[in-house]
């Protein structure tokens, strides 16, 4: 869909909040906390951003974008080129970071990782569940939406220049069967939280990555075959190409975006065979089931995969 950039507001050092509307005032698709959209900034520039507004307000969608000087150009385009009044192609929303039912919630956010957490907090607060948020960032002025959160008693704001890194041992404490842990932020934070949650129940921790998990797609690559169930075609996937590249070369239209295993756009059903998961989206439980894969990075442990394409 083509949406109008209705407002562009700086909400922290290096962070702008984009407000998008339908040009004709039509209602926008519904979404749930944790969802993201793709912004097509140019023909070869597509980036994913978490929705951080109110899911009940279908008149707008809002995303917050951190300027990343060492990034791949998406955030610089948003900060320096996008202007109010422009129309932007938007894909989605999609959600691979769903809020599950739990008695209690522990939210841990680092920097711009606060964006998917905001609507989650609003939902659990509205339903009366117990929750706490630990929010870390480089400096107080760099922490977006701090003004919305700091008056809430369940929130602890910990700028690194004032308090150091988040004390995850104190934050997480002992494993709690009734608590769901949600974490979003830089890779160092996510890895540390995963390590501290190693003794928690298997499905307690939920994370969302903005970049591929370290080493996720770096294992050796071998040749294998894929069978496209809808046509019966059998294609060879060389060691140096992805499944996505092979099916696109064969003329199969597949939605994709990040091409690094983080957004979930290219998720494809697996009907037979054993995927070699190399994405940063699926949980360990979803990987064990093996009925879907991200074809931009994941490969095969069996000689052939049968895909629903």
Overview of this protein structure:
It is a single chain. The chain has 309 residues and is α/β, with parallel strands linked by helices. 18% of the residues lie in helices and 33% in strands. It is built from 8 helices and 18 strands. It has helices spanning 74-80, 114-126, 146-149, 160-163, 168-172, 187-196, 243-249, 284-289; strands at residues 2-12, 15-21, 36-42, 45-50, 61-66, 87-94, 104-110, 130-137, 155-159, 179-184, 205-208, 224-228, 234-237, 267-272, 275-276, 292-294, 299-300, 304-307. The strands form 4 sheets. A 6-stranded antiparallel sheet has the order 4-3-6-1-2-5, covered by helices on one side. The chain has a 5-stranded parallel sheet with strand order 9-8-7-10-11, sandwiched between helices. Helix 3 links the parallel strand 8 and strand 9. The longest helix is centred in the middle third of the chain and has 13 residues, at 114-126. The protein starts with a strand and ends with a strand. The model has no long low-confidence stretch (mean pLDDT 92).
């Amino acid at each position: 869909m083509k949406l109008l950039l209705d407002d562009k507001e700086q909400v922290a050092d290096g962070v702008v909040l984009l407000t998008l509307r339908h040009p004709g005032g039509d209602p926008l698709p519904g979404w749930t906390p944790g969802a993201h959209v793709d912004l097509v900034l140019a023909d070869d520039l597509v980036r994913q951003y978490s929705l951080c507004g109110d899911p009940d307000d279908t008149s707008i969608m809002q995303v917050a974008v951190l300027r990343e000087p060492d990034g791949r150009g998406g955030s610089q385009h948003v900060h320096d080129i996008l202007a109010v009044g422009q129309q932007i192609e938007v894909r989605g929303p999609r959600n691979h970071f769903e809020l599950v039912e739990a008695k209690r919630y522990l939210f841990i956010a680092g920097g711009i990782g606060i964006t998917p957490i905001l609507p989650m907090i609003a939902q659990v607060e509205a339903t009366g569940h117990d929750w706490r948020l630990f929010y870390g960032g480089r400096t107080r002025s760099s922490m977006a939406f701090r003004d919305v959160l700091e008056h809430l008693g369940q929130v602890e704001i910990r700028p690194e220049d004032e308090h150091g890194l988040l004390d995850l041992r104190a934050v997480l404490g002992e494993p709690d069967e009734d608590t769901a842990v949600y974490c979003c932020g830089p890779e160092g934070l996510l890895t540390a939280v995963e390590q501290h949650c190693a003794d928690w129940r298997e499905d307690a921790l939920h994370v969302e990555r903005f970049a591929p998990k370290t080493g996720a797609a770096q294992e050796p690559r071998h040749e294998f075959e894929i069978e496209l169930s809808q046509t019966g075609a059998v294609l060879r996937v060389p060691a140096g190409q992805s499944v996505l590249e092979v099916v696109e070369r064969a003329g199969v239209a597949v939605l994709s975006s990040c091409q690094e295993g983080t957004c979930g756009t290219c998720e494809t059903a697996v009907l037979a065979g054993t995927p070699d998961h190399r994405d940063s989206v699926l949980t360990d439980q979803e990987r064990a089931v093996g009925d879907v894969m991200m074809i931009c990075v994941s490969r095969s442990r069996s000689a052939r995969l049968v895909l629903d394409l």
